[in-house]
What does this fold into?
Amino acid sequence: MRAARHLLAGVLFAGTGLLPVSIPAHGQQAAAHRPPPPPAQPAGEIIVYRDRNFAGPAVSIRQDQSNLRLAWTVRSARVRSGTWELCERAGFQGRCLTVTRDNRDLGQRRVQSVRGSRSAAWREFGSADVTRFGWDRRTIAARGTPRLWSIRLCADRNAVQLRDARATFTNRQYEMLHVPARLAGGACTGPLAFASRQNLASVSFSASTVSPSARVRVRLEGR
It folds into this structure.
């Protein structure tokens, strides 16, 4: 009777296209041959929209997408949870924008790949208020002169225009930083990497609000 059950199990597996699995005798334990688990995906969700103010066609993203094949540019994004990088080319290539919260106006941004941030947590080391509609030089002193590999600038509340950013280190050397011309409110630049790990003294940049009534707090974060 037991042999008949084994024969029937083999026939059923063959009919389904699956490989037959031998059933161990009573009292024996089957060896576990499980494939390694896939890499952990960062928890969270981001929804990207074609139009400002979370309007128009939208795509919900809950894991890394290396090629979205979007036929439209992204102009706003709603972050349900997590930190996300929006990259202009497939394969997470080209310029990437780090988004941590809802953004009603990202400008007109080409986004072809999106991934959740797995990197070490960013820490805030200072901030500066931008209150002038017109170019003004601002400097953020890095609290504690931290030893960092990279930094980023984040805009709270409203968008800000940026140019001519520079990181100065405690040894009085400096590096010029490539920053976007416009940074949306609630967004951060991509990581601005240094040539080597450095003790940061300050970051300076020229900035302007996007309207006479706008006020922006620019945060300096590093890791």
Q: What stands out?
A: Helices lie at 2-16.
